[in-house]
Design a protein that fits this description.
- By secondary structure, this protein is an alpha/beta fold.
- It is built from nine helices and seven strands, in the order αβαβββαααβαβαβαα.
- The strands form two sheets. A five-stranded mixed β-sheet has the order 1-4-5-7-6, with helices on both faces. Strands 2-3 form a two-stranded antiparallel ribbon.
- The longest helix is centred in the middle third of the chain and has 22 residues.
- The chain is globular.
- The termini are close together.
- About 7% of the residues have low confidence.
Length: 297
């Protein structure tokens, strides 16, 4: 790994400004880093929670189609002939998310602390913007900028000069780490990009080296599974969630399921999976080690 940079452009209250605004900031930050480090040739993203959605927006903005002249490319040694395109002129390697609500937070049990109670979930959808402002609207899929579909729906395809899906496709690996339980903020289904019927039966552990990894699978993409537009009506979130699943499933994904059910810190699973604090959340270290051991360089 040549260089490791932690993003600092969307901290604190800035995280309430919306996935798109945060994505633009992250894209600008990436461009600045590549300017300061012209020797870098490859790029990977490791994101947690809503940061995974922000990263998906940012790469859509940073993507350069194959054959495009690298104007202002600090990595002029990069080959333009790569049929997958590049991210800001860099070869795209690993796109990793941990506990990211890829399907949004609107569906049943997508926010576990609401206990799957429909009246609570509907109320949250109405008031979420009062707490999490524009980001909350994006997560609950009730944003309606100038009559446009919800942002997460638009991010299922390329839109103008935002190459959301082409950028995701450019990465050699796409990996979704998910908590199977005890994550009270992001549900298993949305973080693992699965339907209810696709959630696997998991074991206590699949490896002594990674005691909290309980299931792994590699799924091939299905480009033939096209995303037809779906409007949000009475059937609402179920139909839109199905569209999000189908859209993201056009690409191959590695899915890694994590459980801290035997951990004293299990009720902080959303933070433990990324070891947010090295002293408090150390039990998630094996998940981080799993990321490192499988990282393409």
């Amino acid at each position: 790994m040549e260089s490791l940079e932690g993003s600092e452009c969307n901290v604190s209250k800035l995280s309430l400004d919306g996935v798109d605004v945060m994505g633009k900031r992250l894209a600008e930050e990436v461009v600045e880093v590549t300017r300061r480090k012209p020797h870098v040739r490859k790029i990977s993203f490791i994101s947690h929670s809503v940061g995974g959605l922000v990263a998906r927006y940012a790469i859509g903005k940073l993507y350069r189609p194959p054959g495009r002249e690298n104007q202002g490319n600090v990595s002029s040694g990069m080959c333009n002939e790569d049929s997958r395109g590049t991210i800001s002129g860099l070869e795209a390697m690993n796109f990793i998310t941990a506990a990211t609500p890829h399907l949004g937070s609107r569906g049943n049990k997508q926010v576990p602390f609401l206990f799957g109670v429909p009246v609570f979930e509907k109320a949250a959808c109405r008031v979420i913007h009062l707490i999490f402002r524009r980001t909350g609207r994006h997560l609950f899929l009730n944003d309606n900028d100038e009559g446009e579909p919800p942002l997460l729906q638009r991010m299922l395809d390329d839109c103008g000069n935002l190459y959301f899906m082409s950028a995701l496709r450019a990465f050699r690996r796409r990996v979704a780490y998910s908590n199977v339980a005890h994550d009270h903020i992001v549900g298993w289904r949305t973080s693992s990009i699965r339907r209810d019927c696709e959630l696997p039966t998991w074991e206590d552990s699949v490896s002594e080296k990674y005691p909290h990894i309980v299931y792994e699978e590699q799924l091939k993409g299905n480009d033939a599974e096209q995303c037809s537009p779906i409007s949000i009506g009475n059937e609402g979130s179920d139909m839109l969630e199905e569209e999000l699943v189908r859209g993201l499933s056009r690409l191959s994904w590695e899915k890694v399921d994590v459980s801290f059910h035997t951990s004293r810190q299990r009720f902080a699973a959303h933070s433990v999976i990324q070891v947010k604090d090295s002293l408090m959340h150390w039990e998630g270290a094996d998940v981080i080690q799993h990321m490192i051991d499988h990282f393409l360089t």
